[in-house]
Amino acid sequence: MTEEQKSLMPANPKMSARDVKVFYGAKEAIKGVSIDVDMDNVTAFIGPSGCGKSTFLRTLNRMNDTVASARVEGTITLDGEDIYASSMDVVQLRARVGMVFQKPNPFPKSIYENIAYGPRIHGLAASKADLDIIVERSLRRAGLWEEVKDRLHDSGTALSGGQQQRLCIGRAIAVEPEVILMDEPCSALDPIATAKIEELIHELRGKYAIVIVTHNMQQAARVSQRTAFFHLGDLVEYGVTTDIFTNPRQERTKDYITGRYG
Amino acid sequence: MAEHTIKAFDEEIDTLRGLIAEMGGRAEAAIEKAMLALQRHDRELAAQVVAEDKRIDAIEAEVEKLVIQIIALRAPMANDLRDVIAALKIVAVVERIGDYAKNIAKRVPIIAVNKRTLEPISLLPSMGQVAGEMVQDALNAFAARDPDLAVAVVERDTVVDDFYNSVFRTLVTYMVENPKTISECAHLLFVAKNIERIGDQATNVAEMVYYAATGNSLPERERGPSEIEE
């Protein structure tokens, strides 16, 4: 990393990636990415399809472990601890680094159970009363409580798409993560449901380190304070969102965000 | 610069640049004609400057409309965003420059009323020429996205300021010696002040052009004539 790149990194990183490479078989999908993310800033990853932004996001909670051909090099730390170390409990890691996907994927269970499942298996609730508190708190934080409090035992899949996505965010929050990764969380939602998620991201900022992958540049501009532009497996530019969208330093970034990308 | 994937966006930006180039050409012509009318006591030419200012105002309105449309429909980013915002600010300033030229033209009939030869008038056309060229260059810099030309415009403002100080002193001396001409000379003072303001406004345009082209602001500088004589 150059001195300039270092100066743009947040002061108190929650997660740090250094020279991370991801290979799918022989193909190098990520070509040595170094980046820090912190609690105070929402970090957006943008870039054209196939640029590696989702692949890189998935290295942050070892989701790539499930892809047989994927191999990760370099180091990624969470609070200074190497998440690829053999001593790392992957289940525990994924509780600390939660993930929300493109398509809302609630369990085919009640709204209550969707939230309660994680805390129960992680032993976060000693009693039914504890669990009730966690469910209410998580749904409130996810901005869904008022809409579902009278039908907690209806199926989660009966909710609208936007509500389902907020339920999934509530489910991620319920296990008290430190980092929330969002992989195009709004691409299946209408503009109003999208606005609600964006407002939610805004409210969650500071409580969790949030990283969002989005194809929608306006969304990156609206929700993030730091933006990283990926292209062909490289991290081309990383900086303060306002700078990236008003005065990008790299030609490739400029061409992409101004709609000149061929 | 590479073209946008969406061609209509490029066409709109081109239209915007075309309108601003036209506006700049008209503002410069208005300054030149106003100076000529002043020198020749040509009321007809002066009236023409006043009439033609309407087109400058109309272009400002057209550009405003187009910029709002581009922001709403294209959501411009980075250099595109800086360009359209600069365009919006530039037209407001050039409209003002047109008003200064119009104001000079409006004084022509009053200055010409006694058909007196006023020697200090001869100083004004060269001052007007420098200011007019600054306007033209500032807008050429916008069209060419040329930050160096913008800097050159900013640096030339001191020439106009020096002119102003010199014209001011000359006029005051002339008035002392020729008290009968005070009424006309007072108007000439305003003419000189208007030209000085045109130089300042051209400088403002150049600064906006510099920002649009580079994404960085020029350092703040001293404004107006160095001696406070107004």
Automatic annotation (TrEMBL), chain A:
Organism (species): Sphingobium fontiphilum
Record domain ABC transporter: where: 15-257
Keywords from the named record: ATP-binding, Nucleotide-binding, Phosphate transport, Transport
Superkingdom of the source species: Bacteria
GO cellular component labels: membrane
Protein name: Phosphate transport system ATP-binding protein
GO BP term (any one): phosphate ion transmembrane transport
One of the Pfam families matching this protein, by short name: ABC_tran
InterPro entries in alphabetical order: AAA+_ATPase (IPR003593), ABC_transporter-like_ATP-bd (IPR003439), ABC_transporter-like_CS (IPR017871), P-loop_NTPase (IPR027417), PstB-like (IPR005670)
UniProtKB/TrEMBL annotation, chain B:
BP term (GO), one: phosphate ion transport
InterPro entries: PhoU, PhoU-like_sf, PhoU_dom
UniProt GO cellular component terms: cytoplasm
One protein family per Pfam: PhoU
Alphabetically ordered keywords of this record: Cytoplasm, Phosphate transport, Transport
Span of domain PhoU: 20-108, 125-209
UniProt subcellular location: Cytoplasm
Superkingdom, natural source: Bacteria
Main location per the UniProt record: cytoplasm
Function: Plays a role in the regulation of phosphate uptake.
Subunit structure, as described in the record: Homodimer.
Family of the protein in this entry: Belongs to the PhoU family.
NCBIfam families with a match to the protein in the record: phoU_full
Name of the protein in its database record: Phosphate-specific transport system accessory protein PhoU
Organism: Sphingobium fontiphilum
Lineage summary: Bacteria, Pseudomonadati, Pseudomonadota, Alphaproteobacteria, Sphingomonadales
